Amino acid sequence: MPIFLFFLLVLSNSSLVNSCVITKSVHVKVSSFLGDDAVVHCFSKDDDLGYHTLRHNDLEWDFCPNIFGKTKFFCSANWLKENKNKGFVAYSQEEYGGARYLLYLLKFDGIYVSIDHGRVDKKISDWN
Question: What Å distances lie between residue 124 and 98, 101, 114, CA to CA?
Fold first, then answer.
């Protein structure tokens, strides 16, 4: 029994992985439509993806959600030219638990999300 519990704990880690055993992988992408540099920093309790400057590229990652429903990724976006910034939850099992693909769009009037290739972008926040 202790070996089984250890195995479950190892599998429940939300670390970045290429394949999931118990849960289904989630893909997150952050894209900038600002035309200017935006610096994005995304992280979870277990993983820090670092700071990325987005202009003609995207920030993308895959991960396996924790089997106990505790996985959360946070991002902060800083629009350098306009000196605006905003933090947002990029993934929370409570909010996006069934989603397999999340696309965040940094636009002039705020931050939007598209879930599982949906055709409608939902505005989640204005810039500060």
Answer: 18, 16, 10
